[in-house]
Structure formats: C-alpha cells, structure tokens
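hiii, so i know i said id send this last week but things got crazy w the move. better late than never?? heres the sequnce for the chain we talked about at the cafe, plus the structure i predicted for it. fair warning i was half asleep when i ran it
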Amino acid sequence: MGNEAIARGVVEAGASVVTGYPGTPSSEVIETLQKLGDGLDIYVEWAVNERVAFEIAYGAAIGGARAMATMKAPGANVAADPMISAAYGGVDGGLVVLIADDPGPHTTQTEQDNRWFAELAKLPMITPSTPQEAKDFTVKGFELSEILGLPVLLRTTTRVNHAVGDVVTGPTREPVRFKRFVRQPERFVRAGMAWNLERHRWLNRTLAQTEDAAEKLGLNMVEGGENAELCIVTEGAAYNYVVEALERLGALERVRIVKLGLLYPAPRKLLSSQLSQCRRVLVVEELDPYVEHVVKRVAFDEGLRIEVLGKDEGLLPLEGELDTAKVLAALAKLLDAEPPAVESASPRREAPPRPPPLCPGCPHRSSYLAIILGIRRAGYRVDEVPIFGDIGCYALSVYPPLNAIWTEHSMGASISMAMGLKLSGYPKPVVATIGDSTFFHAGIQPLIEAVHKRVDMLVVILDNDVVAMTGHQSTPAWTRTETGRPARPVNLVDIVKAIGVDNLAVVDPYDVDGMARVVAEFLRKPGVNVIIAKHPCALLEARLKGVEKVYTVVPEKCTSCMACVKVTGCPALYVTEDGKVGIVEEDCTGCGLCARFCPYGAIVEKPAGRR
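okay and structure toks below
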C-alpha cells in the first residue's frame, strides 16, 4: 500500500519524530510505523489535532531532527496558521508534511485541492504517482527540505495512498535527532516586522532554487519521442491513467509525457523547454485545473504559440476522480484514434442502494434515539429543535431511520453553529452533538465561547473512548498509546466542569429512556447544559471484552410489524423469507436496543455462542 511505502520512506530517511491526526486516506502511515516500528526508536504518536501535530514536528525540525506530520486534506486548514509562518522561519532538519487529498470524494467533506495551499503557504510541494514513488519521494522530500531549509509538502491522493504494488526498498538510516537550537529571533519570532520582511525576501530567494534542487533529485520525468503529435503534462495518480489509456490506444509512440513530481514552485525551465517542442498540449490532472493554468501561464510568458487543452476546454471533468476511461476518451479525440472495443460484459445485477449504517450496537444510535425521545418528552416536535452534528461516525445519523442531525460542517463546528443560530433569534432549543475525539480536537474552544456568552443550548458529547471512524485510534483520554507509551489520561468531565457549564450529566446511552429524561430536563433549563453520553464503541468493546449475550427473535411472537427495523435501522436485523425479523447473531453485540422497541416482546436475550 502507498501509505505503507511512505512509512518505509520515513524509516529510510531517518525521521525521528512522526505525528499526525487520523483521517482517511492518510492514517495508515502512522499506523504502520506504530505496528512495525518497535525497536526503531522513533516517536510515532497521534496528536490532538493537525495544528498541534505540525507544531510538534516543526519544533523537532528547527532543532535539526528529521520529522514528519501527517493529515488528510481538511487537516491542512487546521494546521495552516503555523505552516504558513514556518515558511518564514524555515527548518534545520528535514520536515515533510503529508497532505492526503481525496478526489471523489470517498471519505472527505469536500474535494479540497491542496495544490493551491502550496502557493498560499509558499512551501515546496512534491507528488508521487505510485507506491514506489511514494516511498522514494518521502526520502527525497527530506533531502529537498534540508537543501532548501524549508518544510516540504508531500501531496498524495487516495489512489496513491491506498494503491498496492511492489516496492523496492533501500537502506534504512539511524533516526536523525536534535543537533542544536540557538536563539535566532529574526528567524523564529514573528513580532518583528523588519525581520518578517527580510524573511519573506529570503523565502522568495530560496524558492527560486527549488527547481534546480528537484532536478538533481530526479523528481520530474519526461517520456516519449521528439516528434510527438501531442504532449501530455500530468502528475500524481493521473499519470497512471494516461499510460494505461495510451497502451490501450496503441499510441504510446505518438506522444510525449511530461510527468511533474514537483508541483510548487512550478518547474518553469522544464516546462518551457518541453512546451517549446510541442504544438498541442493536453494537461491531465485531478480536481482543479491547477497545472493547466501553470502550463498556460508559462506558454504565455515564453511567447509559445501552442494549444493547451484540459479541463477549461471541457475535455476532462472538473469534479470527481479521473479514471482510465475518461482519459482514454480525451486522448482518442485528440489523437483521432479509435477507442478499443469494450468487451460485452455479462448482465449485471445492481445491488439496491442503501445508506451507510451505524454499526450494530453502536452507542451513537442509542444516543440519537434518546435525543429524539427527549425532544418529544420536553414538548417539542422533532422538526422544531435543530440537532447540529459534527465530524465522526455519528454523522451517519443523518440517514434514515434516525434522520437526526441537520448539519455536519467541520471539526468542532456543531457547538459554534448552534450558538450562532440561537444568537440569531431562533426561538426554540438547539442541540449540538459532538464526539469525544472531535471535542478534544476542536470542540473545547466553542464550548468556552458558549459558556462565556451565556447562550442557552444543549451540548451532547458522544464519548465512545476512541477515534472510531478512522480505525480506532487513541484519544487523550487513553492511559497508554498505541506504541505502549504511558500517558496521563485527560478527563473529559473535568474539562467540561472547568469550563463552567451550567448543568452536566454523564449517562450511558444504552439506557435510552434514562438519557431521554435527562435530555428533556436539560432542554427546559436555561444555560449551557452538557450531557456526556459515555459508552465504548461497540466494536472496540466486543474486541476487548468479547460478547456475553446476544438477542434473538421468537418467530411465534413476531408480528412482522417491523418496529425494531424502522426505529433502530440496526444492520444486524434482517427480514426472513416468511416476512418476519431475524437477527444475525454473529453481528449482534447485545445492546438490546431492538428489544426495547419491540412492542410484542418477540426479541429476547440469549447467551452468545463462540465467535
């Protein structure tokens, strides 16, 4: 996997500090180092958010150590403030920042194209196309960082992070640790405006050296003959689609491919020399026409009379992932080639669409049912009380049958947005729901703001003891991290109390009726009221403790009313051939929620068998 290759590159480069915040498609880099890095003497830990992760890595790099920070695409927004300042301070040890974009998108709230971020931050950005390059570019990223004295952004996309392929490994290196850190306020203190102006000049002079350094490291590549009919400029995963499409068209000899490994600053000398030999250029890239605009700018500046085609001309889509078929269609049109016939496939049976469900036994399902019941118990209609959601698996409550959250915006936004709606004059109660790890990440400050400004609202912190959605990573509440490092657990209740909320209750969401009573009570009370709905992630609890009991359906009592299915939507429930409800006992975790909503007592408890 590409992420495993990046982890290998970290070891070959001798990084001694690696930190990040989990998020698909970047998580496996740190997970691989945590699983396989025992004995390597590398600090490899999750941080509370991306900003903190970057600052830890930056602090290590200004002391001469080699360090990496990892994050998914929106994580760059969280870390933007220190990253942009880091361009002025520079580094002494190599610092590589992995930013994993998600065209598609597969698991991300936006198709954010972080190639623009490199220009904003004025930090060099490189990009691999294959797992082999993912490993090699990681090593070269550290080298480039130390040559320039700047953090280097390693930008990947999902298809590179999660692609599988053979990788030729290189020698490993002892971790590069602290060397020295001397007082240089003109570099590291941003309070001096004259210093900032001079560091900006230094930054621009340094960036001007990037293309030459990248050339020595072999980051860019040119393939194809001198008399090509068409030049293709591409980068990242799109390069693979280009090669495959040309092979299927039998047109590899008719084109020249300029593959960019350095995205920012643009390799103008390379592009200028290559474009001057082309009559027509097709730019193949994912997401925005970033490279296309660079190529057009270079062609204009150099006075080249060439035709540059790509997304602006509608040959390739502006949204979503590319694939071989899309690139093949564009190439066939430009090369006047006949697309290869598609073999007729056997008739396909499409699976019926269904929303992604919460897991069987998920405590978040119980929490949202309790919130809904509590709203009704308090005398309101469900459509009168907005439930603000946040980033995490509980966002799946937006789908039927819960239809719970009204918004899911960005990390920590549930509390602030609920506060804003209330301040605007919304007359009914508002509810913000946020997971424990998201609360640690970006929810504490909004709660402080709500308490300070005395805004009436209910905040429900869904505490399942883990960063569940991205693969069960640790939170600051853990007593030991994934690497076995002893940790001082940070108590969520203590934080909420210290902020000074008006009312606080800790409940077990598996007690749906008990939690609903607290919800109703807190909705009627003024002030900032907080409920911590605390129960471990069902999958994690089953893994650690096993499953002692499950539930089964007594067919003679089941009336096929489907109340259990319609209310809970638990994926362990299914409809039998005779129209009654069955339970997949292997999936059941024994939460009992379905039995709670069966009006005929047809769902009963039984001991769990061996799994």
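btw The chain has a mean pLDDT of 95. thought thatd interest u
miss u guys!!
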